Every structure is written in structure tokens, then in C-alpha cells.
Amino acid sequence: MTSAIVMRDYAPTDEAALIGLVQDLQRFEGPFFDRLVPAAEIGPWYIERLLAGCANNKGFIRLATRDGTVVGYATILTVAAMDVADDPGVVPFSYAYIGELCVAPGQRGGGIGQLLIADCEALARRAGAKWLRISSLSGNQRACRIYQAAGFAELRVIFEKALES
């Protein structure tokens, strides 16, 4: 019998576990995007940046735990603002944003990612957000399918072309 997943807020005692998950995320997404910080370089500085982003945007780092062990995490900013400099033809608005989501490699495929999304959605709703966003690298089709199954729809697509020098 598999024990239940418990969601909770990040605490400073979770730093090593969270760094390990961020490193897992960097290794997993590396094949999809070659400009990520190498996993080995992720350290406490990265967690400090996540916490600062949360402080500035009424956010949280949420952890999924099983039997006290951290098995996944997500960051949720409950008040992210549309940057009108990106599109001056858009009326300014705010939304909630799931910035990062990662499940430990040995725990993937068991619904933990879906639980993290649902947890973040509940926080966004409690904060009064009208919209919830999440993004994915286009090559990460598994994540795209999970997000679509959770009710997300494509909103914008960014194309990129490498320019040889």
C-alpha cells in the first residue's frame, strides 16, 4: 500500500531536498533547452531567488511529501502582473502563475504532479486570482499533456530561430 501524499509549505530545513529536486528539473529539461544553468551549479542561491520571487508576488514554494520525504515541489505566485511592455495593446491584468513544478524521478507517473497543480490552483483561488498560468518547454510533451488534462489550454506560442554568427 502506498502512503498518502501530504502538501505543505517549504521550510528552511527542506533546502537540501529542494536543491536536489531543482537539480533533477535542470537535468530533465536540459535536452529541451540548452541555456539552463547546469544542475551542478544549483545551490542555496537558487532557493534564495525562488523565495524572493515568492515574497514579491505573494507566492509559495509548495512541497509534496510522502512519509516525511520530499517527492515533489511547485512554486506558485498568486499575484503576477502582465508586463504591458511585452504587449502594449493589452490591458494590464494580474494572474497566478505556477513557475516551477518537479516530481522526483522515481516518483513520476503516480499523480503527484497533478496533486501539486491542484494544490497551487486552490491557493490561487483563495488569493482571488481570475486566471492561473503555467508554462512548459515545447519539447516536454509529457508536461504539456498533464497541463492540458488539468484544464490548461495553450495561450501563446513563442517561436525561436537560432541565428548563426
At CATH's second level, what is the architecture? 3-Layer(aba) Sandwich
Helix content: 25-40%
Contiguous helical run count: 4
CATH class division:
Alpha Beta
Low-confidence stretches: none
Can you identify the CATH superfamily?
Gcn5-related N-acetyltransferase (GNAT)
The neighbouring-strand order within the major sheet is 1-2-3-4-5
Strand and helix order: EHHEEEHEH
Beta percentage is 15-25%
Task: Give the total of domains.
Answer: 1
Query: Would you tell me the overall average pLDDT?
Result: 93
How would you classify the helix and strand content by structural class?
A: alpha+beta
Query: The CATH topology, please?
Result: Aminopeptidase
The tally of strands reads 5
Characterization of this structure:
- The protein has 165 residues and is an alpha+beta fold.
- 32% of the residues lie in helices and 24% in strands.
- It has 4 helices and 5 strands; from the N terminus they run E-H-H-E-E-E-H-E-H.
- Strands 1-2-3-4-5 form a 5-stranded mixed sheet, sandwiched between helices.
- Strand 2 and strand 3 form a beta hairpin.
- The protein is globular and about 50 Å long.
- It starts with a strand and ends in a 16-residue tail after the last helix.
- The model has no long low-confidence stretch (mean pLDDT 93).
